[in-house]
Specification:
With about 475 residues, the protein is an alpha/beta fold. The chain is built from 16 helices and eight strands. The strands form two sheets. The protein has a six-stranded parallel sheet, with helices on both faces. Helix 6 packs antiparallel against helix 7 and helix 11 runs antiparallel to helix 13. The radius of gyration is 21 Å and the shape is globular. It starts with a helix and ends in a 5-residue tail after the last helix.
Length: about 475
């Protein structure tokens, strides 16, 4: 009987996810004849991909046995300086030693990596001739390890070959990479589930990345005990990344409206647009965020809350890893890349820093107020999940309601009062817009088309939140 109830619940979620608003009316149903791509037309299919996930308190102790089972002879373990002496890293190295696994440690991953820091890690990987990789850390570490794995397997490739267009050449990855096991220590990026590696491209002062299913870790080892070491602000900013992953993937342009349709399946992007499977993961992640995030931030020893947010990161990762994100993330990259002097609280770094999750969430009220007219039902659904009573709300007010819901959520968690509070002014808006324009990989998934003037207004509206 319990199994039957779960099936009914899942079907109900799928039904709710099948929004009938203009931007999502074709999410579940297509007419006959959509069986092949025509050049210039929209896509007709989506593909689900995710890393294997193993979850459990203390599960890290199994990693040595996993590598032994895979026949590992020379393992590259990547982390950052902050984590190198903390319990998660100790647990991994103890497990490797117990299983007799030979390894070398690279512990100079940069928090919010750049093309230069990627290249340094790539050089280490090429020199070491490793047969397997382990990433212990947050998204910065996991993404750096993905890039090191990729370019060590394609040693003759130019760095920009695999970087997303228009900054790079966006070439598809045509061969298999070496096994990578990711051990996430933050509850935010979901990088353990995705084939995406993000970095700051210093010449343009904007973030870009590499996106290919081939980059996905073989296994994401999700050990909730590791999240107990996160400082309060790290927990908050990581959680904001989960929040925006879920919101953006749920409201993204439907996969059936994304163009062009790829001429070959290998060209189908990792970020494909919202779809009925990603919708379920994204909505569930939102429910978990609504229930547990504030507890997880305020009490670092609340194992239930921090464990739940760790899983929410995975759920949202599966959702956005296939559907994609849109304007909040596209606009966040120049916010992080153009930072001047702001140093975020709770981060032990020697450079100015607007953490990724913070750079994403600061524009969220303005962005979702802007996108709501295209799929108001989804925006209202999200506001309701986050705690707002929408029974008397009109569809035309969906954007304002979700924006107000988000402002209250951010205010309760002591988030900086907009871009102005992290060092930006209206004079910086042209540079922020310029840095957003190359982010077509994500911005084209916005359910609402936008101009440079629209982006300018969104940045201006984000200068102050409260």
């Amino acid at each position: 009987m319990a199994g039957r109830t779960r099936i009914v619940s899942l079907l109900q979620q799928l039904e709710r996810a099948a929004c009938r608003c203009p931007a999502h009316s074709n999410t579940l149903h297509h007419g006959a004849g959509a069986a092949a791509c025509t050049v210039g037309k929209t896509d007709y299919a989506f593909e689900m991909a995710s890393s294997n996930i193993r979850y459990g308190e203390g599960v890290t102790r199994e990693i040595g046995m996993d590598l032994q089972n895979l026949g590992a002879r020379n393992v590259c373990v990547m982390t950052d300086k902050n984590l190198s002496s903390l319990p998660p890293m100790k647990a991994v190295l103890e497990s490797l030693a117990k299983s007799g696994v030979n390894y070398k440690v690279y512990d100079t991953v940069r928090v919010e990596p750049t093309d230069s820091s990627f290249k340094d890690a790539i050089a280490f990987a090429k020199k070491g001739s490793f047969d397997m990789f382990v990433a212990v850390g947050g998204g910065s570490v996991i993404d750096t390890c993905k890039a090191a794995n990729l370019y060590s397997c394609f040693p003759d490739a130019d760095f920009l070959d695999f970087v997303n267009a228009p900054i790079g050449k966006g070439k598809p990855v045509t061969g298999a990479l070496k096994p990578l096991i990711a051990v996430p220590t933050t509850a935010g990026t979901g990088s353990e589930t995705t084939g995406v590696a993000i970095f700051d491209y210093e010449p343009l002062k904007a973030k870009t990345g590499i996106a290919s299913r081939a980059l996905r870790p073989m296994l994401g080892m999700v050990d909730p005990l590791h999240t107990l070491s996160m400082p309060e602000r790290v927990a908050a900013n990581s959680g904001f990344d989960v929040l925006c992953h879920a919101l953006e993937s749920y409201t993204a342009l439907p996969y059936s409206q994304r163009s062009p349709c790829p001429p070959n399946p290998i060209n189908r992007p990792a970020y494909q647009g919202s779809n009925p499977i990603s919708d379920v993961w994204s909505r569930h992640a939102l429910h978990v965020v609504a229930k547990y995030m504030k507890r997880a931030v305020r009490d670092p020893q609340d194992l239930e809350a921090r464990s739940s947010m760790h899983l929410a990161s995975v759920f949202a990762g599966i959702g956005f890893g296939n559907a994609g994100v849109h304007l909040c993330h596209g606009m966040s990259y120049p916010i992080a890349g153009n930072v001047k002097t702001h140093v975020a609280k709770g981060y032990c770094v020697d450079h100015a820093l607007v953490p990724h999750g913070l750079s994403v969430v600061l524009t969220s009220p303005a962005v979702f107020n802007f996108t709501a007219p295209m799929c108001p039902e989804r925006h209202l659904d999200a506001a309701e999940i986050l705690g707002t009573d929408i029974r008397q709300v009109k569809r035309d007010d969906a954007g304002a309601v979700l924006a107000d819901t988000l402002r209250r959520f951010l205010y309760d968690l002591n988030v900086e009062d907009g871009l102005g509070a992290v060092g930006y002014s209206k004079d910086d808006i042209p540079a922020l817009v310029k840095g957003t324009i190359p982010q077509e990989r994500v911005t084209k998934l916005s359910p609402r088309e936008h101009t440079e003037e629209d982006l300018s207004r969104l940045f201006e509206a984000s200068m102050k939140l409260y």
